[in-house]
Amino acid sequence: MYVIVAGGGKVGANVARSLLRLRAEVTLIEQRRDRFERLADEFEHQVQRGDATELFVLERAGIARPPDIVLALTGDDEDNMVICQLAKEKYAVPKVIARVNDPRNQAHFDLLGISPTICATSSIMALVEHEVPEHDLIHLLELRKENLEIVEVQIDRDSPVAGMRVEGLRLPEGARLISVMRNGQAEIAVGSTMLEAGDQVLAILEPGKEDELRRVLLNR
Amino acid sequence: MTDRATLRPLMKALVIGCGRVGATIARNLLEEGWDVVVVDENEDALSRLGESWRGAFVVGHGMDTDLLREAGIEEADAVVVSTDGDNTNIVIGQVAQKRFDIQCVVVRVLDPARAAFYAGRGMRTVCPTSTAIDALMETVRTCDIPRVEVV
Predict the structure, then answer these.
(1) A139 and A50 in one domain?
(2) What is the pTM of this model?
(3) Could you tell me which chain A residue has the CA closest to the CA of B121?
(4) With bands split at pLDDT 50, 70 and 90, how would you rate the model's confidence at B5?
(5) Is the ipTM above a cut-off of 0.95?
(6) A111 to B95: CB separation less than 8 angstroms, yes or no
(7) Which of A76, A104, A111 is facing B99, going by the closest CB pair?
(8) Domain coverage including residue B121
(9) Residue B28 neighbours by CB distance under 10 Å
(10) CATH number of the CATH domain containing B123
(11) Quick check: B114 and A53 CB within 8 A?
(12) Domain boundaries, position A171
């Protein structure tokens, strides 16, 4: 497997190191001289200096072969987007993965069809949300490509659906219940499953239907 | 078809990035009768527009979609993207084209290779580097150099 890693900061260098341990062939690209020199001690010929948004730098790194994967892991979102577009559209790289530094730029990555992306801030926030009890609807997983997401909802005593069967719910279109967790036991939600206060329900839905789902399950 | 000029006498341009290039374009467009909004993340850039600037000026980053809306991108007839970052310009240009469906988006890209690649994908890129190279080459070629006699 051949991988080009653009960006030799903490993320890029650690990913490159891990890939080498997996016996992948790796070229790491770093623009800054001080960083490059430090990396060169460790990575030797496997690190190259240059701006990975420049075509000749990418070509020197062997992007025309093309590599199996290009990882755009620089600290600059615009650079990462351009690296991915060049890799995919000019050099037909089969897989690109981009780092999102500023979660507000996620929409731009999506608009340009760059996927998958990984954003440390968003991941941390998703975990925090899971810990905050006030959040009545917790995002567990985003299936960006499928345009679906999985959320967890806690059914409480005031919920209008406590004591109702799943088949009797008027769920919004594009939303389904997956499972019900009760007393530490999970079971698949089927039509005859009865909901009770205290249940943790997993649901799959199209992004944007959260409010409708919240209204049906919690009347909020 | 309705003559849009009668409905909207003013054509609106958004100029993102108010450096030497952006500021001059903004002033020229305003002079030509356009309604101009300039966006720059640095408030000091306003001084480049001159004291007599009668157009709008919004402080913020062109990558910020809410700010672009606030600057009126949805009603813009043309968007000129001329910040000092090629990749920033390339991304903002695509946001203007794809998210806001602006037909006339002009993007400054200093790197000739990236300018050519994105031009091939339907973006109106302008590459000052290529323009300078062409002009310099032409000037060198047409210089009147006295021939040295080879004995």
Answers:
(1) no
(2) 0.80
(3) A89
(4) very low
(5) no
(6) yes
(7) A111
(8) 4-141
(9) 11
(10) 3.40.50.720
(11) yes
(12) 129-218
